[in-house]
């Protein structure tokens, strides 16, 4: 075994462990912001929103949005925050400070009720920690690309307790390859990350299906609904692409813009407490058949619009869970 192979193998272990710590830290911070925003101690975000007063529901996301907007305004005036994909693919140096601060602001805005996903922050923090933890080793640019992509996937896998999903994200979304070296590294790092984050995530599935058993009827129904889900997902992607600004907003207007988006979410949550957050509340209630057709129709319309407003205002967050909501609601 050569020194390069030994260092690459050790780097895989280090990246997996650090990605788990990233997933653990971002999850704890997200829960702290949620509990602070809606003043609850136990239970899910939906429980907290349901138990809070109408004033707190409306004002909480607005204040969180304003604080996050102020943070992004200051951050973008002094630092560049490139995307993970461009940083990894182009073999650029990881801007550790700006990427970590950007991740913290994502947690703040999502935890306070923004209609965005939470998976962006752990991916960024995992890449920052993975880069710092392996920076002293003599890795080739290609090996570094594999490791940082695996860190991003492992961070995703850690927060949702989906090791295979995290590995597939690294392999297909970040690296676009099925090379055994990349596949092996992705599987190991994601498995380690999920194990490390287990004390916080408890290795629970993000969603619990009411009846996981398959039948011919269910399989046929899924096949029939597949084109509809594809159409809804495509429409969602196009809406988000149109909403995304051509250039990252750096004006002070980002502060009132994100605050206004938060206020819209807050006002809507007075009638639909499932609205705040990344959409898990909607999926949970929908799978439990606890949502009326009228509520499903209203949320189906509101959630993509609110997500687009946040994106247009300059907020940053994940799109994985937000993309699941329209498809789930359209099947009701």
Reconstruct the topology from this structure.
Blueprint: H1 3-38, H2 45-51, H3 54-78, H4 84-89, H5 96-111, H6 120-133, H7 141-160, H8 163-175, H9 180-201, H10 216-243, H11 254-271, H12 280-287, H13 293-313, H14 320-330
Helix pairs in contact: 1-2, 1-5, 1-6, 1-7, 1-9, 3-5, 3-11, 5-6, 6-7, 7-8, 7-9, 8-9, 10-13, 10-14, 11-13, 12-14, 13-14
Short description:
With 332 residues, the chain is mostly helical.
What distinguishing features does this structure have?
single chain; 332 residues; Clc chloride channel; 14 helices; globular; disordered C terminus
Explain this structure to me?
By secondary structure, the protein is mainly alpha-helical. It has a single domain, classed as Clc chloride channel, CATH 1.10.3080.10. It contains 14 helices and no strands. It has helices at residues 3-38, 45-51, 54-78, 84-89, 96-111, 120-133, 141-160, 163-175, 180-201, 216-243, 254-271, 280-287, 293-313, 320-330. Helix 7 (141-160) runs parallel beside helix 9. Residues 326-332 have low confidence and may be disordered. The chain crosses the membrane at residues 12-33, 146-171, 183-202, 214-240, 252-272, 284-302. It is a multi-pass membrane protein. Keywords: Chloride, Chloride channel, Ion channel, Ion transport, Membrane, Transmembrane, Transmembrane helix, Transport.
């Amino acid at each position: 075994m050569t020194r390069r192979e030994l260092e690459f193998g050790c780097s895989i272990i280090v990246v997996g462990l650090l990605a788990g710590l990233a997933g653990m830290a971002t999850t704890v911070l997200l829960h702290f912001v949620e509990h602070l925003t809606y003043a609850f101690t136990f239970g899910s975000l939906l429980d907290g929103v349901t138990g809070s007063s109408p004033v707190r529901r409306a004002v909480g996301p607005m204040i969180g949005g304003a604080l996050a907007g102020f943070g992004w305004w200051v951050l973008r005036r002094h630092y560049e925050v490139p995307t993970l994909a461009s940083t990894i693919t182009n073999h650029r140096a990881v801007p550790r400070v700006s990427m970590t601060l950007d991740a913290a602001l994502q947690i703040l805005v999502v935890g306070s009720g923004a209609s965005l996903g939470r998976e962006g922050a752990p991916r960024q923090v995992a890449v920052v920690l993975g880069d710092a933890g392996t920076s002293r080793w003599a890795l080739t640019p290609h090996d570094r690309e594999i490791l940082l992509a695996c860190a991003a996937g492992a961070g995703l896998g850690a927060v949702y307790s989906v090791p295979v999903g995290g590995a597939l994200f690294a392999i297909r979304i970040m690296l676009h390859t099925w090379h055994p070296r990349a596949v092996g590294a992705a599987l190991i790092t994601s498995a380690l990350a999920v194990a490390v984050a287990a004390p916080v995530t408890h290795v629970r599935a993000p969603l619990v299906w009411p009846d996981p058993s398959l039948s011919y009827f269910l399989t046929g129904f899924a096949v029939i609904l597949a084109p509809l889900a594809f159409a809804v997902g495509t429409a969602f992607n196009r809406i988000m692409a149109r909403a995304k600004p051509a250039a990252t907003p750096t004006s002070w207007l980002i502060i009132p813009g994100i605050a206004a988006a938060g206020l819209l979410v807050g006002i809507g949550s007075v009638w639909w407490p499932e609205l705040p957050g990344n959409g898990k509340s909607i999926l949970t209630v929908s799978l439990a058949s606890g949502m009326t057709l009228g509520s499903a129709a209203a949320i189906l319309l509101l959630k993509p619009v609110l997500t687009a407003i946040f994106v247009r205002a300059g907020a940053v967050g994940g799109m994985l869970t937000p993309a699941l909501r329209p498809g789930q609601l359209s099947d009701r």
